[in-house]
Amino acid sequence: xxxxxxxxxxxxALLNYYQSCGLQPVIISGGRIIGYPHIKDSKYCKKLAxxxxxxxxxxxxxxENNKKSAQKWxxxxxxxxxxxxxxxxxxxxxxxxxxxxxxxxxxxxxxREEYLFCHRHILGxxxxxxxxxxxxxxxxxxxxxxxxxxxxx
Length: 153
Fold this sequence. Notes:
Order of helices and strands: EHEEHHHEHE
Structural class: alpha/beta
Number of helices: 5
Shape: globular
Helix content: 25-40%
Number of domains: 1
């Protein structure tokens, strides 16, 4: 089974870093990642991305006081409107095909500080709970973007 990771990718430097670690970034962001699509060999899976039509109003309304309820709403909305329309096995196979035999890292621009809650993790949990023996984990974020490939996990 080919490994799938999740990872923050707010700009092209991180995508290049992941590639230098032998991973195939697959962008699942509804917004722009700075530098994309000018990143060599980057892939994009639009059907897994939240649409800006519902994501942007949700993001703008997010406060410290409503964070838990907003995250619950987001999880339900993403699950009901995106994931329930898909097959976990078909989705996994499509992601692996995009990876061309390399481990895949599902990338979006969810803030690093908030990486414990992001649609990439909702997607990862959904894949894990529906596909036996699959573990989707967050790839370690480098302390700085200039890490050399030998420093990859």
